[in-house]
Design goal:
Elements (H helix, E strand, L loop, with lengths): L6 H23 L26 H6 L7 H4 L3 H10 L15
């Protein structure tokens, strides 16, 4: 063995190993069922949509829970009447910020 170390070849070897590690990390990050050619960076994988199932005990207690809330109010006139029936608070004081 020689006592001299060739730092140029050692640096090249380290850079080569670094590139191989980066390639392995990229391969590992890709989904297993997708081929390398099918992967497109413009597509984003999202979790699937999940529907919420209401427990039967809650349906028994609140039978109106299955109704569509927004359609249950009625027509636009009834909606306005419901909103206008709510009392306004006279205790709320609003001071707008000063204009520059």
């Amino acid at each position: 063995m020689s006592d001299k170390i060739d730092f140029n070849s050692l640096g090249g070897l380290i850079n080569g190993l670094k590139m191989q590690v980066q390639e392995l990390r990229k391969e590992r990050a890709l989904p297993r069922d997708v081929n390398m050619q099918e992967v497109d960076e413009n597509y984003v994988t999202r979790p699937p949509i999940v529907d919420l199932k209401v427990p039967q005990g809650l349906i028994d207690i609140m039978s109106h829970i299955e109704e569509d809330f927004y359609k249950s109010i009625g027509c636009e006139e009834e909606t306005k009447e419901v909103i206008q029936a709510c009392p306004r608070s006279s205790k709320m004081n609003y001071s707008p910020p000063p204009l520059n």
